[in-house]
Structures are given as C-alpha cells and as structure tokens.
Amino acid sequence: MSANPVEVAPIEAVAIGASAGAVQALLHILPALPADTPVPILIVVHVPPDRSNALVTLFQDRCRLRVKEAEDKEAIAHGTVYFAPSDYHLLVEAERTLALSSDEPVNHSRPAIDVLLETAADAFGPALTAIIMTGANHDGADGVRAVAAAGGVVIVEDPATAQVPTMPTAALAACPSARVMPLNDILAYLVGLKTR
To answer: Which InterPro entries match (predicted)?
Structure first.
C-alpha cells in the first residue's frame, strides 16, 4: 500500500521584504526572472518617506517582467513586479487587490514588510511564498510567522551571506521552519515556479 502524496498548494503570489542591501539583492534576482513568471511579485523595501521611490525606474529597464509602483485598489496581475510606494503601507485585500495605507509606521517603517506579509497571508493563505532578504531591523518577523500559520512557504536569505543579516536572523527566530537559502537558490526557486 503506497502512502498518499502530500498535497501542495500551487503558489499564486510572492511577497518580498528587504531593507539595507535590498537593491543589490534584488538586482541579483529580478532581472534574471523569465518573462513568463506566472505569479505577481509584491515587494516592500524600506525607503525614506521624504524621498521618491526610484526602485521602479531602476528595475524597469533591467527586467523582463513588468515593473511598476503599486496603486490603491489595483487588481493584482501575474508576471508583474509591484513596489510599495514611498511612505505608504502596501496591503493585499481579500479579493486580491492592492491597497495603500498611510497608517502609522510599523517597526519605524512605512511601508512595512509585516503589513504586506500579514495581509497577503490572509488573502492567499497556503498559495503565498514570503521571502525575507537583507536588512537591519526586525520588520518581517511577525509577517513570516503569519505566512507560516496560514500554510504558506517562508524563505529567508541565509544570514551568513546576506549583506546585512539582522532581518533574516530575526525572521528565522520567528519562523524556525523557514527555508534558508542564498540568493542563487532563491532565484532558482522563483524560476522553478513556472513548472510547478
């Protein structure tokens, strides 16, 4: 008698959080993703509130995926990278649309990674992959706990190879079951999503 295979929910969205060192880490990942990546990628990078978010401009010409700043009430589209705008939290609503909020900062940050991950976990449940990369504070730790509780996949950049290990270390403390990967393996995971 053979055991029943474990059912694994297909991934429908990826949410990424990063802070100090984020640009270098994302430059390693995003330009290498194929144009037929079948999921949306929602990204919060800590950006000073008094500075316009130059990330979209930086990545637009380097990526095969569509790259844009998230807009309030926007429907989430596959094959698109959404960056949280400066000074706004990025949320995912139950009907899988995006929302922007000027609520108080969380972990001294707006946008905050926890806000994105917690709302995305509510919306996507086990169909969400959350990725925490390099950063210098604890933002994202509560979020990965919520993603894991909802049955989603949690990936944390290996603190030993992260430019700034504080954020990945905090995420691992909050979610010891997370998969720990260097950037090359995170990239391979994301490229592999198209075959799952």
So the answer is: CheB_C, Sig_transdc_resp-reg_Me-estase
